[in-house]
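User: Need the bound-state model for zinc ion:
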Amino acid sequence: MISIRSCPICNLEQFEDYLKIKDHSISGEYFKLLKCSSCQFILTSPRPDDEQLGKYYQSKEYISHSDTNIGIVNKIYRIIRNYTLKQKIELIKNLNKQPNLIDIGSGAGYFLDACQKAGFNGFGIEPDETTRAGSISKFNIQVFDESYLNQIPESSIDLISMWHVLEHVPALNQRLQEIYKILKPNAYLIIAVPNCSSFDSKHYKEYWAGYDVPRHLWHFTPNTIIKLLSQHSFMHIKTLPMYFDSYYVSMLSEKYKHNFLGLIYGVAIGFLSNAKAFFSKKNRYSSQIYIFSKN
Ligand SMILES: [Zn+2]
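Assistant: Bound-state model below.
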């Protein structure tokens, strides 16, 4: 296990206990969340070391790494995925019509496949060997392991996307440095992460599925992610909501609470979370897309 000594954002070494959370989906083990006393960044500590982390991903039910049909929540997830894929492609087209892009954490490969069909040039980076091989054989796309990031020429990439990936990356600052180096000046970085200052997060507390310990090592809010990225010379351009994530996360959270009416409650809380974020005009959606450009 690794205990985080200093905050990756502000470097200070003072934390307060925030929550104790069960790994509801795989191991059943409990993990602690700490909150930095200075910048309020929330992180999982202690956490499994890099070699141990792999075993916490080994489940047929772990959705972003599998392609099996288990349960109604997963079925709904797949319907929504096809819709949101189209939205992601539109978003990218509005930034750059013909980007040379990298999708870091490309998982099962659906997004890269959609990019290829849209005529974009690009490839994926996926650390898990089985997932990587599966995506290549399913979609005829190019996907490499993480070490390939070091072989990419400096200032050669127009756009990098990380869809629900940064919260999984152990060497957070090192990864952002690598990304900065290979992007062209003014190129785009798109990061989607759960927002632990959302209404559904506050409602479900330790049952909130967005914590997903120990796979999620970092738990971002709009403030902490923008602060982290600004330290790496990325300019925040805009934040976009992911409307469907509140429903998915709320239904999953209800499942963790063993609520037999969970689907109905989950939909209600998901709706309420979106409505509160919308009417408050604050960026407080369950998950959000942050668009940055390289300064
Ligand atoms: Zn801090």
